[in-house]
Specification:
Largest sheet: 12 strands, mixed
Shape: elongated
Order of helices and strands: HHEHEEEEHEHEHEEEEEHEHEHHHHH
Distance between the termini: 27 Å
Number of strands: 14
Radius of gyration: 32 Å
Helix content: 55-70%
Number of domains: 2
Strand content: 15-25%
């Protein structure tokens, strides 16, 4: 039997029962669509987050309190007060960290902002005047606060566009006063529609001097984070070592395993985010793949039924000279064709749904989420669907090839 004849025979066998073939394909379509959707959205999310991390700059180093989270149980350990004003002064000392070009203490939290009868609860981000440079953003209207205003605990605030809209509507907000934690703050600047940058949605953030935030909003004398910028990319690693040495000396720590802080560069942050998202994507894809096993069992079941129904056909073909190998090849090819067709449809539907969801996210949340269809997802879809057909079609095909031609011709 030639390959062309084998192909035509298999197609004829499948088209003879169109409804059954379509229902069999459906299980594979659902599984492959789920896998493509998860991997496509996972890649898009990874590209978005890594792109946002990159906007901060490769020279920026973050210092956070507590142990570095290595699992879900370590998450709460980051909410500590281990970074104190004394640490800030030591890190600002050039003899301790010679290649630190800029240091910005950060405190943050959530607090209601009130203007007249309107209330909105933004993220309050206490920083220095360096935030605009480090986060590459500046007010579209008004101005940012100055170093002198940071030193003098000034009641000034720069608000995101969402806060402005919620509190002031279409009215001008610059030089108006809003109340935060019972204290009046003068709005001196309004950010443009920045959206999500790094791990902050700047449209929903109110920037105030960190001194003011500590004293009058949060009532804390420690920092939630220290952001340090090295003077050159080549000095990042050395600066990290200097920061660790300075803080260990300040906290009387001799064993690095006992650190009550952790230092993270942008490269490390990107690697961590990438690892987490890859693991999560693979986990979700594995869960979605369970439906493929169900689909494969369905194919085996349908093919066994088909073998039984076509017993006389098998006997007639063998009587006309078809070998066991010919029968095996025909039924195996039918199973593979079903799954490959289902795989192709699943890839197309997964890509379509992923593109649609990406557009909804972009328009609904203002994110620069780009549609991504990784090649490995497409190859995985084709490979898995073909493998399912081969594995679950082998037993029915083997059963068909073993039938006796005489008994098959007598079958009714």
């Amino acid at each position: 039997m030639t390959l062309r004849h084998l192909f035509h025979t298999s197609v004829a066998g499948l088209t003879a029962h169109k409804s059954r073939s379509l229902l069999t394909i459906l299980g594979i379509v659902i599984g492959i669509t789920s896998i493509i959707l998860v991997m496509s959205l996972g890649t898009g999310a990874q590209n978005l987050i890594l792109g946002q991390v990159k906007t901060i700059g490769s020279k920026v180093i973050g210092v956070a309190p507590g142990r570095q989270p290595k699992g879900p149980t370590d998450f709460l350990s980051t909410f500590t007060d281990s970074l104190k004003p004394r640490d800030l002064e030591l890190l600002r000392n050039k003899s301790n960290v010679p290649h630190a070009a800029q240091i910005m203490p950060v405190v943050f939290g959530s607090q209601a902002a009130v203007y007249g009868s309107e209330t909105y609860r933004p993220t309050i981000f206490g920083a220095t005047e360096l935030y605009a440079e480090i986060y590459n953003t500046s007010p579209a209207q008004g101005r940012s606060f100055t170093a002198d205003e940071v030193k003098s605990f000034a009641d000034v605030v720069v608000i995101g566009s969402e806060i402005k809209t919620q509190l002031f509507g279409f009215d001008d907000a610059v030089n108006k006063k809003i109340k935060i934690n019972g204290r009046n703050f003068t709005v001196i600047g309004i950010l443009g529609n920045v959206g999500q940058t790094s791990f902050l949605n700047f449209d929903k953030v109110a920037f105030v001097p960190y001194t003011t935030a500590q004293q009058y909003i949060f009532g804390k004398k420690y920092f939630d984070r220290l952001t340090i910028e090295a003077d050159a990319d080549a000095h990042v690693a050395e600066t990290v070592d200097d920061i660790k040495a300075t803080l260990r000396a300040s906290h009387n720590i001799t064993n690095p395993d006992k650190d009550d802080f952790f230092v993270e560069t942008q490269a490390e942050a990107m690697q961590t985010v990438s690892t987490i998202l890859n693991v999560l994507t693979l986990f979700l894809a594995a869960v979605a793949a369970i439906s493929l096993v169900v689909g494969g069992i369905g194919i085996m079941n349908i093919m066994l039924v088909s073998v039984t129904e076509r017993t006389r056909e098998i006997g007639l073909r063998k009587a006309l000279g078809a070998t066991d190998g010919n029968i095996l090849s025909q039924f195996l090819l039918e199973a593979i064709m079903l799954t490959v067709i289902g795989g192709v449809i699943g890839i197309l539907l997964g890509a379509l749904f992923s593109f649609a969801i990406t557009q909804v996210i972009n328009r609904g949340y203002g994110l620069a989420w780009e549609f991504a269809l990784p090649l490995n997802a497409v190859l995985l879809g084709i490979g898995v669907s073909s493998g399912i057909g081969l594995i679950f079609g082998l037993y029915p095909a083997s059963q068909a090839s073993r039938k006796s031609p005489i008994e098959s011709l007598r079958y009714e």
